[in-house]
Design goal:
extended, about 55% helix, 2 strands, 6 helices, mainly alpha
C-alpha cells in the first residue's frame, strides 16, 4: 500500500513558508545533479523526449544519475503515447465494430489511457508536473533563484492571515 496523506513538502518549501508547523525541518541530502546516459534501446521519439526532459531537469537541479530507470520509463511511455495518438488520428471514429456487428470502443483508447497513467506517474516522480515542482520547491523558470510571482502571492496571503490571527 502506498503512503497515506498529502505528499510531504520539501525542506526548501517549508523554509520559504516560514516553517508554519514549527516542527524541526529534516536535513536534506542533495544528490549530484548529473544527466544519466540515455539507454540505447529507446526509439527516436523517446530519445528526443529524453533530451528535452534532461535539459529541463538539469536546469532545475533535480536530476541525478540514479533517476535513469524512471526517466527511461517516462520516455518510453511518451513514445508509446505518441505512436498511439498517431494511429488514433487515422481512425475516423473512436468506435470499432466486432465481427458480429456490435460497436465497441477502439482498443487503442485503453492503451492510450494506460500510457497516460504511466506518463503521469513518472512525471510526478521526476518533478515534471506543476504540483510536483511546487512541492519540491524548484526555482522560477528564469533560474534567478527568486520565487515566482505565484509563490510571492501565496507567501503574502499567508503573512496577511498570520497577522489577522488565523
Amino acid at each position: 500500500m502506498g503512503r497515506r496523506g498529502p505528499i510531504a513538502k520539501s525542506a526548501a518549501s517549508k523554509k520559504r513558508a516560514g516553517n508554519p508547523g514549527k516542527r524541526p525541518i529534516a536535513a536534506t541530502v542533495k544528490a549530484e545533479s548529473k544527466a544519466p546516459d540515455c539507454p540505447t534501446w529507446l526509439d527516436e521519439e523517446a530519445r528526443a523526449e529524453w533530451k528535452r526532459v534532461v535539459k529541463e531537469l538539469l536546469a532545475q537541479g533535480t536530476l541525478a544519475a540514479a533517476d535513469r530507470a524512471v526517466l527511461s520509463a517516462y520516455c518510453e511511455a511518451w513514445s508509446e503515447f505518441v505512436a498511439i495518438m498517431t494511429e488514433l488520428a487515422k481512425c475516423p471514429s473512436r468506435v470499432v465494430w466486432t465481427e458480429k456487428g456490435y460497436p465497441v470502443a477502439n482498443p487503442l483508447i485503453a492503451q492510450k489511457n494506460k500510457a497516460v497513467a504511466r506518463i503521469e506517474s513518472a512525471a510526478k516522480q521526476l518533478g515534471l508536473t506543476p504540483a510536483a515542482r511546487l512541492r519540491i520547491g524548484t526555482e522560477s523558470p528564469s533560474g534567478s533563484g527568486a520565487p515566482s510571482a505565484l509563490a510571492e502571492q501565496i507567501q503574502k496571503k499567508r503573512q496577511e492571515r498570520a497577522k489577522r490571527g488565523r
